[in-house]
């Protein structure tokens, strides 16, 4: 079957899926969760094949860690699905209601985007998270995972497709792509696909944008920062910095650059280095940092680099304004955190740092759809469009205007036989 035929099938299914009620979608999600557990042995076998092949191909250790899909990961995605079931259905929510005139009522109501193409990295759990979010929000989906996870993705897509069809969801709402040629073909299908979400490097996201007329919601590099202000609690600063860097290094919300105020650097850096040395983190620093602790020199390129590894660059700054300027210059508008006792400084930081997620006194690792209570996420948007930050259910919706009349015609208003009232109704769409 050609990619065009697949996209056409998903488009047809998405129209029917858009009208599915909450009960049906939640039953389908529950059936997916049960099927993942029932067919666990098949998943583990497929994943073992992917891991063996990738190890033979010398895939980098952080990427191998992302690729692994074991019992714990299966339990995590099942928990995510159960959390998603507990969320309110976002489709059909009234955002605005206005009485234009007597008997003429306008409603702004949420609806699915339609068909979404998602291109993601080696994490097989992303396939489950993305597809279940699309199902709950009533969207059809075309998925392209990393080739290193080929076998795992195949079995997961098969499980999800069969489970939802058995539950009564329209067939063909989900399809799996496998090659780069498939992606290139998909990018031409703007008549079938409504949104593309690429997850990868800046270069990759830019390639997608430059080679398609389909709208793109991009999340590229995760160059995240922690800034330790002079008013920070030292123990808190060290604890947050360590978690932000090492809790899980191969993810986009891990901190890659630590900024430290010059007045607190002599207190924070030695303690931080001691802990990070034990965890095997390679440290690089500016000239001022090198005068306080023994680290390799950081280059201009380091401030622009997403390591996804046990590596951290450190820069000492003069003040809050320099920290903000550095983040807005080198960051990827993903997630940035300030550690300080000063609410005024935190407020200034959170107002002026141009990122989708800005934190005060907490780890950058909290930037996540599941942790935000979104059920999961299809990715993190660093764009300034309808969705920013972790993109959960709400980010997979658009809206339509629904107008209910009773024989109303514009000519009556053009000839001033009638006039508009524009009264706020404050009520839900009645159908």
Give an overview of the whole structure.
This protein has 431 residues and is an alpha/beta fold. It has 2 domains: 3-199 and 393-397, Aldehyde Dehydrogenase, Chain A, domain 1 (3-Layer(aba) Sandwich); 224-366, Aldehyde Dehydrogenase, Chain A, domain 2, CATH 3.40.309. It is 41% helix and 20% strand. The chain contains 15 helices and 17 strands. The chain has helices at residues 3-17, 22-38, 40-56, 61-67, 71-85, 124-136, 150-167, 180-186, 202-210, 234-246, 265-278, 287-290, 320-330, 343-352, 410-414, and strands at 94-101, 104-112, 115-119, 140-144, 174-177, 195-198, 224-228, 255-261, 282-285, 296-297, 311-317, 335-339, 357-360, 379-381, 389-391, 397-404, 423-424. The strands form 4 sheets. It has a 7-stranded parallel β-sheet with strand order 10-9-11-8-7-12-13, sandwiched between helices. α2 runs antiparallel to α5. It is globular. The mean pLDDT is 93.
Pick out its properties.
Aldehyde Dehydrogenase, Chain A, domain 1, alpha/beta, 431 residues, 17 strands, 15 helices, 2 domains, four-stranded antiparallel β-sheet, seven-stranded parallel β-sheet, Aldehyde Dehydrogenase, Chain A, domain 2
Residue windows where pLDDT falls under 50 for at least 5 positions: none
Mean pLDDT metric? 93
Assigned CATH class of the largest domain: Alpha Beta
The total domain count is 2
Q: Based on helices, strands and strand pairing, what is the structural class? A: alpha/beta
Helical amount among residues, as a percent range?
Answer: 40-55%
Total beta strands: 17
CATH level-4 homologous superfamily of the largest domain: Aldehyde Dehydrogenase, Chain A, domain 1
């Amino acid at each position: 079957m050609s990619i065009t035929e697949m996209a056409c099938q998903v488009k047809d299914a998405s129209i029917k899926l858009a009208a599915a009620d909450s009960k049906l979608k939640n039953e389908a999600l529950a059936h997916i969760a049960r099927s993942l557990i029932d067919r666990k042995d098949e998943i583990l076998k497929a994943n073992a094949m992917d891991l063996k092949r990738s190890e033979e191909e010398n895939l980098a250790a952080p990427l191998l860690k992302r690729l692994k899909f074991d019992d714990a990961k299966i339990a995590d995605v099942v928990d995510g699905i159960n959390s998603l079931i507990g969320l309110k259905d976002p489709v059909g929510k009234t955002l605005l209601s206005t009485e234009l005139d007597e008997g003429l009522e306008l409603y702004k109501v949420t609806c699915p985007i339609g068909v979404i193409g998602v291109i993601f990295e080696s994490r097989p759990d992303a396939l489950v998270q993305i597809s279940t979010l699309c199902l709950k929000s009533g969207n059809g989906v075309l998925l392209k995972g990393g080739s290193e996870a080929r076998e795992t993705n195949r079995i997961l897509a098969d499980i999800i497709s069969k489970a939802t069809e058995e539950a009564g969801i329209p067939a063909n709402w989900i399809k799996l792509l496998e090659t780069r040629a498939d992606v290139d073909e998909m990018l031409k299908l703007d008549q079938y696909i409504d949104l593309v979400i690429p997850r990868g490097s800046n270069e990759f996201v830019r390639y997608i944008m430059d080679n398609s007329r389909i709208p793109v919601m991009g999340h590229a590099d995760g160059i995240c920062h922690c800034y330790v202000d002079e008013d920070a609690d030292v123990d808190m600063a060290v604890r947050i910095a360590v978690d932000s860097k090492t809790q899980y290094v191969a993810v986009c919300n891990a901190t890659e650059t630590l900024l430290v105020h010059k007045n607190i650097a002599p207190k924070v850096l030695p303690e931080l280095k001691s802990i990070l040395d034990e965890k095997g983190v390679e440290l690089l620093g500016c000239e001022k940092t090198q005068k306080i602790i023994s680290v390799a020199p950081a280059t201009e390129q380091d401030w622009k680099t997403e390591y996804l590894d046990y590596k951290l660059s450190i820069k000492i700054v003069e003040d809050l304004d320099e920290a903000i300027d550095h983040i807005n210059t080198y960051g990827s508008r993903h997630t940035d955190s300030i550690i300080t006792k000063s609410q005024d400084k935190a407020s200034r930081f959170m107002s002026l740092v141009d990122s989708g997620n800005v934190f005060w006194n907490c780890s950058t690792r909290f930037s996540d759809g599941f942790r935000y209570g979104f059920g999961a996420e299809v990715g993190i948007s660093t764009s300034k469009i309808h969705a920013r930050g972790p993109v959960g259910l709400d980010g997979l919706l658009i809206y339509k205007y629904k107008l209910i009349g009773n024989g109303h015609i514009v000519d009556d208003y053009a000839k001033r036989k009638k006039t508009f009232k524009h009264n706020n109704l404050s009520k839900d769409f009645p159908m």
